[in-house]
Structure formats: C-alpha cells, structure tokens
Amino acid sequence: MGHKVIQFSTGNVGVHALRTLIARPDLELVGVHASSPHKVGRDAAELCGVDQPTGVIATDDIDALIDLGADCVVYTSQAETRPQEAMTEIARFLRAGINVVGTSFVWLVAPDFTDAWLRAPLETACAEGNSTLYVNGIDPGFSGDTLVYTALSLTAHATMITVQEIFDYGTYDDAEFTGASFGFGAGPEHKPILFAPGVLTSMWGAQVRSLAFDLGIELDEVREWHEQWVTPSPISCTMMEVAPGAVGAVRFGVQGLRNDRTIITMEHVNRLTNAAAPDWPYPPDGHPGVHRVVVEGDPGVEINTHVGRSGTDHNIAGVVATAARAINAIDAACHAPAGILAAHDLRALEHVRGVMW
Questions:
Q1: pLDDT in tens, 124-181
Q2: Contact, 172 vs 142, CB < 8 A?
Q3: Which helix (H) or strand (E) holds 165?
Q4: Phi and psi of 252, rounded to 5°?
C-alpha cells in the first residue's frame, strides 16, 4: 500500500473520487467524511456503488478522521457556497500535518493570485502543519494551465490565447448548485451568483493573471462578461425543466488585455440542449463537449480535449476527470514543501503517476 488517504464528501465529485481511491492499488483508503445523516455509518463501498465492502465507515467526526494518521485528504465538498466553513475544515487537516488535494475552492487553482482573505489563513495552516494544499480540476484547472502550457510549448510566437469549455450540460444532474449558479431555468432578469460583479474574475481571472505571469507579460486590465440565451420552447433534460422565456444557455468569460487588445480569454459556453444558442460556438465533429485551447500566432495551435471516450456520458466523464485531477497529484502533494501549490509548480509527470495498474 502507498499513501493513506481520506475522502472528504461523497457528492457529485466525491462519489467518483471515492470509487477511484478504492480501486487504486497505490493508495489506501482509511477514512470517509459524510455530512448527511443517511450516509454516516455506511461502508465507503456502499456510498459509491462498489460491491466489495471496504471496512471503512463514513463519519462526520473530523477529529476522528485526523486521528487516523492519513497522509492526504481528497477534499471535494462544495466550498464556494460555504467558504468560511470549508476553509475551517481544510485548515484543521493542514494544521494537523495532513496534506490536502481538492477540487473545491476553485479560487485556489491559481493561488498566487487568490485574494488574501482565503489564501493567507490556509498558508498559515500549511506552515503550522508543514503540509501542502493543491486545488485543481478540469475547468478552472487543466484547460487553463496544463492544456494551454502544452499548446504554448508548440508555439514560436503567440499573439492571442483562447481557452474554452463548450459543453451541453443537459445530462448533468446538478440543478441545485450548477443550475442555480448559472441561472438556468430562471428569467433573464435574474442575476445568478456567478454573474454578480467580480465573481467571474475571482474564479477565472486569477488563472488569466497566472498565465500572463507564466508568460512573462503584464496585463493592463482583466475584464469579465456574460450573456444569456432564452429558450422559445420548453426544454426537458436531466438538469431541469426549463419553461419558454427562461434561460437555457449561458456564455461567459474573463479577458486579459494589453495595449487595449485582448490577448488571453478564458470562456464557457454551456447549454441545456444542443438546439440552444445556435449562434454560439459548438464543439467540433458533433461532440457534446470540448475543452479547447486555441493559440493564434506562429504556427497557430488548436488542441481539443474530449472526455468520455469510453462511452461514459460527457458530463459524468468531466466529473470523473475533475476527481482524477486531484487524486493524481496526491503523491506530489505529499512530497512537496509546505504551502499552496499551483499546476505550474508540478512537473507534467506528477499528474499521471499511478493511473495504470
């Protein structure tokens, strides 16, 4: 067995993380946190649909989990809607000397450009416990760092960089968080939390600034924008039912400008049906989703990433990939110096170790 690991939460991302941790021969699952009373006291296998019991029983007692002496926690509990509580939970593990990798707190994907209210307490916790924190996912995360680094490595001279997630979210069963945050199903006059002033910049702007820093350039301005598309007919999908006149697609992004010209863009185009927003960009070749990087310049590079090639629904595949992004960095986090890591602190190899057995 390798590193001893605790899975914190068994929600949309956590259930896939838990299944992966049980399967990985290089990792030993020693604890599971669950907040729902109907999950506490149940075997980890039962919580993620694995047949063979693990003997690891879910608990809501963080002190008991700390006492297990784990090397790392995989933190996938929703944090963006409960930041102070989540920060306290993560800091408790870090102060106890337990490393944390996570998919929540996407503000920390580019920690050097994260607001001090979040970064500073967690840095202090890392210093006190000589521990490491690493947060990443597929977007924000992979597409805006590792994927764009790959495209840029093939570029002699870049003039503009565009990072996109273009996804049909119709099969994504997450109306409570994603649906509400994006404003799906609401009237166009409703302003969801994602489009409150400064929110997009706090989530994707840090990664725009981080990429500019990695490129050795200075931005004059970071600007956010969003659009909504209202459906003329009912939409019925896994995410929700959308009545005519309500929002069925959104497009938003953050731009980095230099000399009054956009040079870095990170944007999303998200629909609840393929028929929505027909004038907006689509994934290539009929795919239901893509994470794409386009680098204009010499020679010009485009890389399209599609998850779910095994036949898995693309939205489920995206969640599996998000969980994997954190799990695959466990070994790196356990061996890194104390502090908060970003993707540019890791070698590419440190995101792939242990995935084949």
A1: 999 999 999 999 999 999 999 999 999 999 999 999 999 999 999 999 999 999 999 9
A2: no
A3: strand 157-168
A4: -155, 165
**Which residue has 């649906």 as its token pair?**
179
Taking the C-alpha atoms of residue 243 and residue 235, their distance in angstroms, rounded to an integer, is: 7
How far is residue 240's CA from residue 302's CA, in Å, rounded to a whole number? Answer: 33
Phi, psi of 217 (to 5 degrees): -120, 160
Q: What is the DSSP letter of 138?
A: B
Cβ partners under 8 Å of residue 44, min gap 6: 7, 18, 22, 29, 32, 50, 54, 56, 57, 58
Judged by phi (left if over 0) then psi (alpha if -120 to 50, else beta), residue 299 lies in alpha
> Sign of the C-alpha dihedral, residues 115, 119, 121, 123?
negative
pLDDT at 292 > cutoff 70: yes
Structure token pair of residue 19: 């299944």
Q: How confident is the model at residue 1 (pLDDT cuts 50, 70, 90)?
A: low
Predicted confidence at residue 205, as pLDDT, reads 96
Structure-token pair, residue 118: 């979040």
How does strand 339-341 pair with strand 132-135? parallel
Is the pLDDT assigned to residue 113 strictly greater than 70? yes
Distance CA 164, CA 265 (A): 8
CA dist 264 and 281 (Å) reads: 18
231, two tokens: 């459906």
User: What is the residue whose two structure tokens read 């004038």?
Assistant: 279
Extended strands (E) in 67-116: 72-75, 99-102
Q: Which sign does the torsion angle of CA 113, 117, 122, 124 carry?
A: positive
Quick: pLDDT tens for 259-291: 999 999 999 999 999 999 999 999 999 999 999
